[in-house]
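Recall the central idea of this unit: under ordinary conditions, the amino acid sequence of a chain determines the structure it adopts. In this exercise we apply that idea directly, starting from the sequence alone.
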Amino acid sequence: MPYQRIRDLREDADLTQKEIAEILQMHKTTYVRYESGEREIPLKIAVALAQYYGVSLDYLAGLSDRAKPLK
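Accordingly, the structure predicted from this sequence is:
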């Protein structure tokens, strides 16, 4: 999973790592490890991030460059 995408989405939303960790109800250290690529992002967290930012899982996973799914 391209960890740069979750960082870019967070920064575009003007959120700190601490703020997004609180939104996801996790420790900041855990979120930092996801964003740095130290830990794999569980599907449950990936879904929560995609829903929060309003993007597709394909975009979050780097399978598509289109943030919003086609209708």
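The chain has a mean pLDDT of 91.
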